[in-house]
Design brief:
alpha/beta, protease, 9 helices, Collagenase (Catalytic Domain), signal, globular, binds 2-acetamido-2-deoxy-beta-D-glucopyranose, 6 strands, binds zinc ion
């Protein structure tokens, strides 16, 4: 059962965004909790988010975005994927996932990313039996550190880990590309098997959690923010959306920031709506994904000029 309190991320701890003089792991951990998706997490302190992301925004205008989107190439760029299945004991109940289910999950993912211009190919499925890892893999934990030994490939390679962590509300998380500069070993996305395609979660079993997390891996943030004052996702065409965020569901017509233009994008993949409700990225998100992939992962979509990509400020 899903709980009924507010959703959020586990960004709650203000320490998450303390970027002090500390070097290495501390800063790394603090910065990397951006794309953490939890059920029933605690509330976020907006000032810590603002401090982290910076207050000044310098978004390109829509026309400059369109001007840069010059190429209409329909050839998708390939992304190599290592599918890392953790399990307690190799059984499906213990977290193992069949090749067939993995194939179906990637069909769903590839359909969502075709118009973005990328396609995923699973180069290997690596199944690891480790009960301790399977039941305790949470972001920022020592187990996560241990699991980094599994990672394959480089900045352009996607590692997808599945687990079944207990005693945590964190269901999935994904790193954003700019994190590569701090801690590339954590690059990738991690999803509880309950939210994998075919998983037992009553509203997240259609495979869209993977799309959402890979959206983070391509550089997207959530469509919702932390207040109605401003946007935090570096995308122009996603209306500002406040918390509280409806739990799952498909609250069409919701307008959580009535003084700001636009309704909440309840159908967006980067929302927390239920899987059956989530079906789209905006053009601005598509553009940002192409830019972030070019800038950080070296996969350059035709027409993207790395030197023209605005910094996130
Ligand atoms: C892309 O498509 C648009 C609209 O159809 C067209 O105006 C433009 O010339 C095309 N660009 C290229 C590079 O083919
Ligand atoms: C996990 O599932 C795969 C595919 O069904 C199967 O080949 C494998 O033997 C199972 N167990 C382990 C430990 O990989
Ligand atoms: C994660 O998976 C475990 C094992 O299937 C399950 O008990 C737990 O409820 C899941 N957690 C979330 C937040 O989905
Ligand atoms: C989860 O919490 C329960 C109850 O406190 C405890 O018995 C169990 O060992 C914990 N499991 C893990 C994997 O930490
Ligand atoms: C991966 O990205 C980081 C951050 O941009 C960069 O420092 C590093 O050199 C890149 N690695 C490779 C092999 O290009
Ligand atoms: Zn997320």
């Amino acid at each position: 059962m899903l709980c009924t309190t507010l959703w959020s991320t586990i960004l709650a701890s203000s320490a998450c965004f303390t970027i002090a003089s500390a070097t290495g792991l501390h800063v790394d951990r603090s910065r990397r909790l951006v794309g953490v998706d939890a059920l029933c997490g605690t509330a976020i302190d907006p000032s810590t988010i603002a401090a982290f992301r910076g207050n000044a925004r310098n978004q390109p205008s829509t026309s400059s975005i369109l001007a840069r989107r010059a190429d209409n190439s329909s050839v998708p760029l390939p992304i190599d994927v290592y599918m890392q299945i953790l399990s307690a004991d190799g059984t499906e109940e213990g977290g193992n996932i069949s090749d067939e289910t993995i194939g179906k999950q990637f069909t769903v993912l590839n359909e969502a990313f075709l118009h973005v211009g990328f396609q995923f190919r699973v180069v290997d499925i690596i199944r690891t039996i480790n009960e301790r890892w399977y039941h305790n893999l949470t972001p920022g934990s020592s187990i996560e550190e241990e699991v980094t030994v599994l990672r394959k490939g480089g900045n352009a390679t996607l590692n997808v880990y599945t687990m079944g962590a207990l005693n945590t509300s964190t269901q999935a998380w994904g790193s954003v590309p700019s994190e590569l500069q701090y801690h590339s070993q954590y690059d990738g996305v991690t999803i509880n098997g309950t939210a994998f395609l075919g998983g037992s979660d009553p509203v997240y079993g259609l495979g869209r959690s993977m799309i959402h997390e890979v959206g983070h891996w391509f550089g997207l943030y959530h469509t919702f923010a932390y207040g109605c004052e401003k946007s935090y996702d570096y995308v122009d065409d996603t209306p500002i959306e406040n918390q509280p965020i409806a739990l799952g569901g498909c609250d069409v017509g919701r307008d959580s920031c009535p003084d700001q233009p636009g309704l909440d994008l309840v159908h967006n993949y980067m929302s927390y709506s239920s899987d059956e409700c989530r079906d789209s990225f905006t053009p601005g998100q598509v553009q940002r994904m192409r830019e972030q992939m070019a800038k950080w992962r070296g996969i350059v979509y035709p027409g993207i000029v790395v030197g023209d990509i605005p910094d996130d400020v």
